[in-house]
Each structure stands twice: as C-alpha cells, then as structure tokens.
Amino acid sequence: MAVFKQQTPKKAPNPETKIVSWLRENLFPNATNSALTLLALYVIYLIVPVVANWMLFDATFAPVSNEQCGIKGACWSYIFEKLDLFIYGFYPPEIYWRPQWVLILALSFVWIAKLLKQHKYKTKITITLIIIYPIISFFLLYGGPGLEIVETYKWGGLMLTIIVATVGVIASFPIGVLLALGRQSKMPIIRFLSIIYIEFIRGVPLITILFMASVILPLFFKEGMDMDKLLRALIGITMFQSAYIAEVIRGGLQAIPRGQYEAADAMGLNFIQKIVLIILPQALKISIPNIVGSFIALFKDTTLLLIIGLFDILSMVHLTTSDEKWLGRSTEGYVFVMVVMWIILYSISHYSKVLELRYSTEHKN
Amino acid sequence: MKKIKLLLSFIYNNKIRSFLFQIITLVVIVYFFYSASGNVVNNIESRGMQTGFGFLGAESGFNISEFLIDYSSTSSNLMVFYVGLINTIVVSVVGIIFASIIGFVVGIARLSNNWLIAKLAGGYIELFRNIPILLQILFWYNLAIVSLPSTKQSFELFNSIFINLRGIYLPKPIATEGFVWVFVALIAGIVLRTLIKCHFKKMHNKTGVKTNTLTYSLLLIIVLPIAVYFTLGSPMVFDYPALKGFNFRGGMSLSPEFLSLAFALSIYSATYIAEAIRSGVESVSNGQKEAALAIGLTQRQSLKLVVLPQALKVAIPPIINQYLNLTKNSSLASAIGYSDLVSVFTGTVLTQVGQALEIIFMTMMVYLTISLLISLVLNIVNYKMSIKER
C-alpha cells in the first residue's frame, strides 16, 4: 500500500538578479575558483593600467618633436611622421597611387569573381583574372613602358611584406601540388625525390634557406648574371613554402577515398584529367583551412627578410629610429608593427576558422 | 599500320610510361645539378674563394660573449661551431621546458569553468600567436635594454642576485669533494622507487589491493639525497657575484640576449602547446566521460584513467612538432646577437672566411639531424601511445 506524505513546497529560487547569479556561477562557484578569479583580477590590475597609461593616457599624439614627447608615455608622433616609410618603404611618394591601385584591383577582382557565381563563363573569367592580375601588378609596381621604373631596393614596408607573402604563396602553390602528387605517386624515383625535398626543407629553419638563396644561389648561375636581391629572397621563400604547401595538400589527398580514383579510371579519364577534374578539386577543398594556416605562417615568416637586409615593415623600426630625430623610440616602433601585424594575422586566422566551419561536415559533440 | 599500333600500345603501357617519365625527370635534375656545379666551380675560381673544410682548423680570431666550453679568440673555427651548437641546444632546451609548463597551464586554464580564467587564457593565446616570433624576440630584447638599470644601479635581491643591463647574476654552486655521493643517492632513490612501484603494481594486479606509493617516492627521491647531503657536511659552496670595477665578477650570469630569446620562444610556443592540449582534451567525446562515470569511477579517476590517456594521444604529436619549431626558431637569435649556431658560425665565421657552401651545408645538416632525431622520438611516442587492441 502506498503511503503518501505531504511534502513541503520547495523554496522559490533566490531572487538574485541575472548578473549576480551569472557572477556566482562563472566566477565564484567555490573557494578555489574564487581565489583564482581574484588572482586573475590582480594580474589584470598589474598589467592593464601600465600598458593603457603608456599607450593612451600618457602618450603624445600631437605632431611634436622627440624631446617634447617626454618619457612617461608613448610618442606616437614618431609613427605619424614616419607612417609612409612603414607602409611603402622608399617608394617615391608622388607615385603611391601605383601600389594603391594594385590593392584596389585585388579587391575589385575578388568582388567580380563573387558576383559571377552563377555566370556561364565563371571559371574561365576567374582564371583569366588570376593570370592577368600578377602581370598588371608587376607592371604597376615596377614600371615599364610608359611608367617610371622603380627599382626593387626601393620597395619596402608593409607593401613589401604583403608582396612577398602573396607571391610566396601563389608561386609555391603549383610546386606544392606537384610535390604532393609526387609523394603520393607509385613511381619510386619520383616519390623518393619528393620526400627528400620536402623533408629536407621542413627540417631546416627558414633563415638558413634565405642565407642559401642570398649567398649560394648566385654561385649556381653564370658569372655576370646579377640576380635581384628581392628575387633571390622570393626564390628562397617559394622553395620553403612549397614544401609546407605540399604537406598540407598531401593531407587533403589522403582524405580522398580510393573509390574516387577507381571511378575516374573506370570512366576512362586519363591521369591528368583524373587529377585535375576529380581528385584535386576535392582535395583542395578539404585543405583550404590548412592552406590559409600555412599562409599565416608565411606572413609571419616574412619578417625574416630583415635578417638578409630587405626593408620589410619590421626593419623600418631599425631604420626610422636610427634617424637622429627619433633616437630611442624603438619601443613605439615595435608596438606599432605588432599592432599592425596582429590585426592582419588575427583577421586571416579568424577567416580561416569561418572557412573551417563552413566546410566541416563532422558532427560536433 | 601494325608497327604504329605496336608503338602505341608500347607508349600507352602504364609501366613503360612511368619508367620513361622517371628517367626523364632524373636526367633533367642531374643535368641541372651538373651545369650548376660547373658554374659553381667557375664562380669559386674567379672569385678566388677557398674550398674544403680546411677553414675549420684555422684560428677564429674573434670573441664570443657566451660559451660553456673553453673558448678564446685563438680557438679554431671548429670550436666556434661547437660553442654555437651548444648555445643553440641550451636555449632550445630551456625554451622547451618553459614552453611546456606555460602551455600546459594555459591549455588547462583555457578549458576552465571559470569565465575570467578561460577568457584570460584565450586572450593570451590569441595575442601572442598572431605576432611574428622575430618581432617578439626583438621587442622583449628592446624592452630589456630600455628598462634595465646600469651596472652601478643594479637591482638587488638578498645581496646575492643582481639584475642589470648586462643580465642576471646568480650565485654559482660549486660541487666539492663528496657531492658525487648525493648524486649517487638520488639515482639509487629513483631506481629503488621504480622497483617498489613495480612491486606494488604486481600486487595490485594479483590481489586488487592498492597501495599508495607517494610516501615511498618522497622519502626515496627527496629525503634520501638531502639526508646524504647533510651527513656529508654540505659538500657544496656558492660563489657569489660581486661588483668589481665596472662589472660583476664571479657567480654565473644569464645575458639579456639569452633571457629575452628564451622568454620570447617560450611564450610563443606555449600558445601552440596550449592549443594542442585544449584540442586534445576536447577530442575526447563526452560519451567517454559519461561512460567512465557510469561504471562508477570518480571524477578524478575518470580524468586520470579515461580522459587524459586519450587526450594526450591526440595532443602529444603536435606538441613534439612545436618543440622542433622552437628549436628551428632559436636560429633567430642572430637578430639580437645571442651566440647561437647561426649567429656565430653561419654569421661571423661566414663573413670572415667566405666559404658559404660548406658553412651553410654544415648548419643545415645540424638542424636536419635535430629534426630527424625529434621525428624519431615522435614515431616512438606514437607507437607507444597507439591504442593497443587485444
């Protein structure tokens, strides 16, 4: 026989406000966590005011001289005065419109490619744009018939950083695809050569490859063939990057089921058709997030140009602070470059996360 | 007609095709290197450059600020190579140790239920991951140079640690006679502890009785060596640094170059290690944790026996990769003048002797060897960690 007992009703939940209950749940659930929260607050209290005061509240923004800035806060006047150098290097100021147009063209080409999503000739137009763009850009940046020639040693700053990273990733892409295919291939000599190349490059630091490109590479060519410094650096960076791209694409290739290869064979496609039409589109789609990741790594690595004497955005700090007017302001310079680099890299990595989510078909737990 | 058909079938034979293709590739590559090496020989002759490894025996003629083995400007270039190699290894090992500690703490903090701690760890990762390592090295070095006091106004701790522009000066421990026995005691302790642990594990497997070995471990590894140390009458003296003239003498010092390089490398690699640990823990599906709780394990046991082994399996390969990256990144020391391999050997010796081929080859071989060794370790770890199926 069931016995029923009168239960006293449960107390209504504490009429805490949302904020208080949130704080209790997330910051002070128990003694250890409360102590950790307080510790974290203390760390923030130690760091944030110092940095904020130096960067903002005690800093000088007005266009004054080094002495007038004082030493209490940052002297952003220095950055404002040298901003052109940080962005364009020694590129002649009266023709800044040329690199600007290169950027505008890049953005508008991306926009056009997006607009054409449903168009009949979409692929053809996109490929044409991809082929024309580097030619136009080179013409605009370097000059040629009708445009004043700007030697590459005048290129610098953020412009050079972006150029090197972009050229590096675009030039290394086809080589990387070939190396990845070579490493997957059944032909022993090809596979062996690809593995040797990839593992060798991935085993040594970029700086030794840049040294090699700038010191040993000229020895490989006939005497009198004077190679451009920037070109040498670009060759080094492309050699380096293609090994990494190859490994990324190999990851994508390995994810393609055997059935796809067999189906392509069964349809009577030849090797090139099989790879270009069936395998690569799928493999590349899988590896997009990792390709972006390796682009980020390359972008960070372009700062090494400083060591072989090219004037990327980082070496502008050295250059501008050796100007007597702004001696001892390198901290401001480094912080400025850090902020610029951080914004660029964070945006790219954020975008790659978005891509990863878009292409991911896995279940999330 | 028949002949053409035969030829076609010959060309379309896959085996023959791939064979021909490989031969052609090989010929092209060999030809490239052949013509390049001809050019190299010509260029070297016309520039009057030396060849061979004879330069290694020659006197280096320059000073190095940091060295752990005997070195002076009259030592050979080979010694420069060793000094640089040792410095590279030292800074890499220090970086790896600190990066692992910071990375582990931050990775765990990132997963914390505490909102503030998790956000703080996330902020740290996002901040330092997205700044190039070279920039960070230069920034910390610059900060150290700008903010540290001069030798005369050194910052003092307990009258034995001094911090100034030239680095940190610490008392140097000097082992005297008998210290060897402390070492022996330590090793004996470790061996004994392992034996005891083995024994109790066997007992556990046999009878199901579990014994806590923590007391034994503490006793054998920590108390035993300390006891030996004191019974032998403290066989270790300290050499304290002292200001003499313009500089500190005695003790041991860590230069600002070394400190900023090790610091930058640690906090940069730590972000990647933290992410590896986070993704490792997140890769263990919720079902595993729930199953562990369902069969009656406590939270601690479920973490120790179910979650961590699976998480580490995912996390360790990328972590070891980061160790390799850290070692390679240590070559950026040349930007701030820490005497690592690239800085003193590929930098200074190269400018002095000019034998780029040999020097860059040697440097690359060193890094290649290190990376092969680390890959070997990775493969062994992967093998050991792979889930053993019965």
What is the ordering of alpha helices and beta strands of chain A?
HHHHHHHHHHHHHH
* CATH class designation of the largest domain in chain A: Mainly Alpha
CATH superfamily of the largest domain in chain A: MetI-like
CATH class of the domain at 77-150 and 255-385 in chain B: Mainly Alpha
Give the biggest beta sheet of chain B: 4 strands, antiparallel
Structural class of chain B: alpha+beta
- Percent in helix of chain B: 55-70%
Mean pLDDT of chain A: 85
Biggest interface reads: A-B, 56 and 55 residues
Observed structural traits:
heterodimer, A: 365 residues, mainly alpha, MetI-like fold, 3 domains, globular, B: 390 residues, alpha+beta, 4-stranded antiparallel sheet, two-stranded antiparallel ribbon, 8 strands
What this model shows, in words?
The complex is a heterodimer of chains A (365) and B (390). Chain A has 365 residues and is mostly helical. Chain A folds into 3 domains: 40-90 and 311-359, no CATH class; 93-149; 169-310, Orthogonal Bundle (MetI-like fold), CATH 1.10.3720. Chain A is 70% helix and 0% strand. Chain A has helices at residues 18-26, 31-57, 66-69, 76-88, 97-115, 122-142, 157-184, 188-203, 206-220, 229-254, 258-266, 271-301, 315-321, 330-359. The longest helix of chain A is centred in the C-terminal third of the chain and has 31 residues, at 271-301. Chain B has 390 residues and is of the alpha+beta class. Among the domains of chain B are: 2-46; 77-150 and 255-385, MetI-like (MetI-like fold, Orthogonal Bundle), CATH 1.10.3720. Chain B is built from 12 helices and 8 strands. In chain B, a hairpin with a 2-residue loop joins β2 (161-164) and β3 (167-170). Classes of the chains: A mainly alpha (365), B alpha+beta (390). Chains A and B meet through α2, α8, α9, α12 and α14 of A and α2, α4, α5, α11 and α12 of B.
